[in-house]
Specification:
heterodimer, A: mainly alpha, two-stranded antiparallel ribbon, flat, B: 322 residues, alpha/beta, Rossmann fold, 8-stranded mixed sheet, 11 helices, globular
Chain lengths: 356, 322
């Protein structure tokens, strides 16, 4: 090799470079070196990965469609979830248990006379109420409960977990033992006991949203607020314990930043992915719990429907009208599945390390 | 005393002990720093060397009250720095960290990282002023203005360390603790960063406590050098003096291990290889901590711990025999 180079022999360890073997870089090659990859933020990067995931994007589309449906439908459909169907101002007692897209005797007469009747897309129930509107309102209630309970869990869990993790030492130990105690409380028993007590104690202003939802829902929220945040708190604490070991936290301390600022600016942004993911997965579990409680009769106050209570009342006429069970059940499945798939997609997009 | 204000930073008998759980109920104190004293004049660089785990980094961090000192005093311009008034001194003492990868928040832009000290101390009156200051700092450390909106992970190690330095400079400190700022960089970048440290010192007149384990770098940048062994300073003095005529047997062996970039000289040199291991800082030997590995150890070394004594021109050595 050295003969080929026509260079004198040197120590084998010296870095001898034959300049003749190199050639000058062209302008284009130089420019290629200059280009830095486009600046991306953490959010942009995650969204880009999320967009490549067909399951997650499909879930988003389904959720958006459901959201549009429950917002727009009550404005378009002239029926209410609690009112008996009226034809030309007269209560229509014959519109009981209609099949989808059929009309009652009274309605048929009215149509024959030239009047217009909005079709019953999913038929009616045994109390002459439009079933489509009941499913729509049931979905509203279930989604509202799911989102509200998850936000409650998010706020309490993140607040508690970040204090515990950041303070560390004895404070952390005491706070985590409290979490352990709460973890051991049976949640369903608590819901049942609380709803019994609350229905005696609380009186609502008639007509308010809370009165419509009923004391069972209040106890459900309270139990979520009291019991379900512990999982989130543990998760956030674990994240913070590992993040606060980073030197940039020490650097912020040396700058003179206060603890609140360090948690807000340095620690929480670095565990936000875990928080988003677990909130997305919390929503379906809250919807499930609400549906279950409504199904066993501890859910929303009648006549307000929820998907669970609709499924429960459909059970009575299951042999004659099986479709009444199918609609709320499919709705629950769609929502829960979509949120679960979205949660998985978010995890893959924002926390690639967690994948497999 | 008139000497009170002669020094910018004065450390007296600084101690930092960490409790370590050894059994179910037992706790042993890990003496990371055990009675360290030194002074730094304005505009001066004190190099702090020693092997891994000897407490160099702990000295730097305790100095800035990032760890609560177990004992001793820290004086800044003659005034004692305590837990309560540390926030006033955060503007005058800053730190550059060892690892340029973990010392910058990956979720913040360069602009926000450098601007954070300005935000914390409210050192600007308008957004434009904040931006001007940040761009000025970036120029000082050799970064382009277009880098401001980028995230730290988009930069190389050397550029990241420049960002870290700009952050430390933001409050215009008089004293910077440099905690092995170049040990995570490769050699060519090390030289650039070291030269930048020197240029900045000339321009702004700051004092450095320069912590490193590379003796050549420390000798290059320091006015004075302090050598640490197991939480204590064993030798301190003028950089050339310590480098060329070391007194303490530990310093001598440390210097004999410095790689020389010339094979011939390296062959002729006598390498002193110490026997034994470094004792655990949780269970220090009695008397002088170095006596278990010292070729000159006597009974006196085991009985009593030597204190730093002046051997002329401020060259202080803690040894009974040398």
């Amino acid at each position: 090799m050295s003969e080929e180079n026509k260079l004198p022999k040197r120590s084998p360890f010296s870095a001898q470079i034959d300049l003749a073997k190199f050639e000058l870089a062209t302008e284009e090659e130089k420019r290629q070196q200059d280009v830095m990859s486009e600046s991306t933020t953490f959010l942009k990067d995650g969204m880009r990965r999320l967009k490549k995931n067909p399951l997650a994007m499909g879930s988003i589309v389904i959720l958006v469609l459901i959201l549009l449906l429950i917002i727009i439908a009550p404005r378009v459909v002239p029926y209410t979830y609690s009112g008996i169907i009226t034809v030309d101002g007269v209560r229509d007692k014959s519109a009981k248990n209609l099949a989808p897209f059929t009309y009652s005797k009274l309605e048929q007469e009215y149509i024959d006379e030239g009047g217009k009747v909005f079709p019953h897309i999913l038929g009616t129930d045994e109390m002459c109420r439009d079933y489509f509107m009941r499913v729509i309102y049931g979905t509203r209630v279930s989604l509202f409960v799911g989102l509200f309970a998850s936000v409650l869990v998010l706020i309490i869990g993140v607040f508690y977990g970040s204090i515990s993790g950041y303070a560390g030492g004895r404070v952390d130990m005491i706070m985590m033992r409290i979490v352990d105690i709460i973890y051991s409380l049976p949640d369903l028993l608590m819901v049942i006991l609380l709803s019994v007590v609350l229905s005696q104690v609380i009186t609502f202003q008639p007509g308010s949203l809370m009165a419509k939802l009923g004391s069972n829902m209040i106890s459900l929220f309270i139990v979520f607020g009291l019991l379900y945040w512990v999982g989130m708190a543990r998760l956030v604490r674990g994240q913070i314990l590992s993040i606060k070991e980073n030197e940039y936290v020490l650097a912020a301390q040396s700058i003179g930043a206060k603890s609140g600022r360090i948690i807000k600016r340095h620690i929480l942004p670095n565990c936000i992915s875990v928080i988003i993911i677990s909130t997305a997965l919390q929503i379906p579990s809250a919807i499930f719990t609400e549906s279950f409680l409504s199904f066993v009769g501890l859910g929303v106050q009648a006549p307000m429907p929820s998907l669970g209570s609709l499924a429960n009342s459909a059970r009575d006429g299951l042999q004659s009208y099986p479709y009444k069970l199918v609609f709320p059940a499919v709705m629950i499945c769609l929502i829960v599945l979509a949120f679960n798939l979205l949660g998985d997609g978010l995890r893959d997009a924002f926390d690639p390390k967690l994948k497999d | 005393m008139s000497s009170e204000n002669e020094y910018l930073v004065e450390v007296k008998d600084l101690k930092e002990h960490f409790p370590v759980r050894t059994g179910f109920f037992e706790k042993t104190m890990l003496k990371a720093v055990d009675g360290v004293s030194f002074q730094i004049k304005p505009g001066e660089t004190l190099g702090l060397v020693g092997e891994s785990g000897c407490g160099k980094t702990t000295v730097g961090r305790t100095l800035l009250h990032l760890y609560k000192p177990t004992g001793g005093q820290i004086l800044f311009e003659g005034e004692e720095v305590t837990e309560n008034n540390i926030n006033e001194y955060r503007k005058r003492m800053q730190m550059v960290f060892q690892d340029p990868y973990s010392s910058l928040n990956p979720r913040m832009t360069v602009e926000d990282i450098i601007g954070e000290p300005l935000d914390v101390h409210k050192m600007y009156s308008s957004k434009a002023e904040r931006r001007d200051k940040i761009l000025g700092l970036m120029e000082t450390v050799g970064l382009n203005a277009e880098h401001a909106t980028r995230y730290a992970h988009e930069f190389s190690g050397g550029q990241r360390q420049r960002i870290g330095i700009a952050r430390a400079l933001a409050v215009r400190p008089k004293f910077i603790v440099c905690d092995e700022p170049v040990s995570a960089l490769d050699v060519s970048i090390q030289a650039q960063v070291i030269n930048m440290f020197e240029d900045l010192q000339h321009k702004m007149g700051m004092a450095y406590l320069f912590i490193a384990h590379d003796l050549l770098i420390v000798k290059h940048i320091s006015d004075r050098i302090a050598v640490m062994y197991l939480g204590r300073i064993v030798e301190i003095g003028d950089a050339d003096e310590v480098y060329h005529s070391p007194k303490h047997p530990y310093t001598v062996s440390l210097l004999s291990a410095v790689p020389i970039p010339d094979p011939k000289t390296a062959k002729e040199r006598q390498r002193i290889i110490l026997t034994g291991d470094v004792p655990s800082p949780m269970n220090l030997p009695s008397g002088c901590a170095f006596r278990t590995r010292c070729p000159y150890a006597t009974d006196k070394c085991a009985a009593e711990c030597p204190s730093l004594t002046d051997r002329g021109d401020g060259h202080m050595v803690a040894c009974w025999n040398k």
